[in-house]
Amino acid sequence: MKKYISLVLALVMALGILAGCGAKDVEELPGETVTITVGIPQNSNVVDYYENAFTKYLEEQANVKLEFMLFSNARSEYLQQLALMCSANEKLPDVILGFEFDQYIMNQYGEDGYFIDLTDYIEAYAPNYKAQLENLDADIKEYVVDKSKHLDTGAYYGMPRVLCEAFDDLQSVAYINKSWLNKLGLQVPTTVDELKTVLTAFMTQDPNDNGEADEIPMLGSEGVINYLLNAFVRYEQLTFNVTDGKVWDPVKTDEFRQGVIFANELVKSGGYSKLSFSINSTSEYKNLISPVGASSKVGIFTGNHVVMTNPATDAKKEFTALPALGDATGKGGYTIVNDPSIAWTACITKDCKYPAAAMKLIDTFYMDETISRQRFGEKDVDWTYKEGKNACGTDSYVNIVNGEAFFSGNSTWCRNMCGIMTQWNYLDVPEAAVTSNAVESQRLVAEQWQLVQAGKKPEERATRLVYTPDEYAIREMKSGNISSYISEQVILFVSGEKDPKDDAAWNEFLTTLDGQGRSELMEICQQAYDRK
User: Fold this and answer.
1) Longest dimension (CA), the chain
2) Which H or E element spans position 449?
3) Distance from C-alpha of 129 to C-alpha of 363, rounded to nearest angstrom
4) Which of 7, 293, 347, 448 has the most CB atoms around its CB within 10 Å?
5) Can you give the pLDDT at residue 140?
6) For the segment 54-72, what is each residue's pLDDT rounded down to a tens digit?
């Protein structure tokens, strides 16, 4: 217990002295409509949670009346608020919904009696959850189930929100200005040498045809760096590599250093803009990539094209998706696809009088229509049912009418609360009559998805691992600081504030990593991988 309190102090705040209370026996659903209080992170863009289309839909589907206990919208703050409520022994809402718990803290709340074990309730009252699990690939299904269970007791203290096989899973996506390529008679680069040639041409041959040397050949901070590094060695932040069952650290390889040196040389030559390390707002990127009333000033950028461009312009028309660069060392050439995103976002508390009804409410979130409603808004108002192909080329059924429903208004809670989200229920079917900007967004998604599907991926990955409580505690205490340190130092080396060719500086970087526990994390990863 002392170890847990120390961890929570570091993450949110101490839970205080914890008093337990076990899960109740499974009871029948109440025959009448009952009131369920849900504790949720409050989104200021929601006009009214009570007179809300999504609220009314849930109440009808689950035969409940919803009341709300509103918490902060920021993760660190709502976790702190919950911890303080528990330490003060205050009455909890019946259901905690939309909080992003990690596995260890969720299980600890369950062990200490604040969340009930949902095992029997899932069996009795969660047909939609079980059906959605069957829609997943077998290995992903196994991963979700194993990660959701308490490693020692097998208890389920929370229900998962899973984002699987959607465009959000792609990492280090990059786009190149095809208008500039066409103007200069160049092809899309596929190797580091070809990239260097293209960037030099962008910088020296006036591709925007305005008679000024104002072009920015390549722009972006960590996204660009990670894109470049994967040409030299497979590098996925917070993840170790594995070959023939042996876990190894890409950061400590010569190939990783070669990639950093290459990126630094691009900065020194001007091909990779130093602006990448001084820009601190999305609006600044937008003003360069998609200026209003002018052509783009950027040749290559990374990141989500929806976030990085101004929807009021036609800038997306100028760009095409950029494939991963080919192998430059014998260990590179990789495209990175994230694991399914899993957080535990729905729990039933010890103070819930009607846990069966609460479980039915939670299970409603695993219906396809509910997943689409929480993302796209009210059916037949903000979207209509129309089966077809989404931008990734797989089946979907959502035809968007109002693209702003998720971001403001009174059709949704402006948050993905719970559910298993796949390309079927999470991505929309492009419609010919939408705006030019939306059409170009769909095109870029389709191009990038096709490139990623065809890209080089490792045969073994040290991911989808289940850690013991002790291993998890160590990872939580160390991994965040280590990841931040790697990002910070790599940026310093790439930007030129440190010299990546300086052996003393590089060795100091690696030595500090070990001092922070990087090797210990790799050992823990190996142990978990061996149990896989």
Assistant:
1) 77
2) helix 436-454
3) 6
4) 347
5) 86
6) 999 999 999 999 999 999 9
73: phi then psi, degrees, rounded to nearest 5: -80, -15
Q: Are residues 253 and 131 in the same domain?
A: no
The number of beta carbons lying within 10 Å of the beta carbon of residue 323 is 18
- Tracing tokens 């465009």 back to the chain, one arrives at 167
Report pLDDT for 171.
Answer: 62
CATH number at residue 226: 3.40.190.10
Beta strands in 463-513 (DSSP E): none
DSSP strands (E only) in 104-178: 159-163, 170-171, 174-177
- 141 within 8 A of 269, measured Cβ to Cβ: no
Q: What tokens appear for 370 in the block?
A: 């509910």
DSSP letter for each residue of 22-81 = PPPPP-PPPSS-EEEEEEEE--TTBS-STT-HHHHHHHHHHTEEEEEEEE-SSHHHHHHH
Domain count, the chain: 3
Residue 454's Cβ-side half-sphere holds a number of Cα atoms within 13 Å equal to 12
Three-state secondary-structure class, residue 459? coil
pLDDT value for 3? 37
Q: Which residue has the tokens 């040639």?
A: 197
- In our burial notation (b when 16+ CB lie closer than 10 A, e otherwise), range 196-225 reads bebbebbbeebbbeeeeeebbbbbbbbbbb
Q: Both tokens of residue 210?
A: 């305005």
Which amino acid, one-letter code, is at 327? D
- Whether the CB-CB separation of 248 and 240 falls below 8 Å is answered with yes
Those residues of the chain that have pLDDT short of 50 are 1-24
pTM equals 0.82
The string of pLDDT tens digits covering residues 364-397 is 999 999 999 999 999 999 999 999 988 888 899 9
Which pLDDT does position 111 carry in this prediction? 93
Look at the chain and count its residues. Answer: 532
- pLDDT value of residue 9: 39
Q: Which domain holds residue 239?
A: 170-338+435-454
Give me 365's structure tokens: 């979130």
Q: How far apart are the first and last CA of the chain?
A: 27
The residue written with tokens 């077809």 in the block is 388
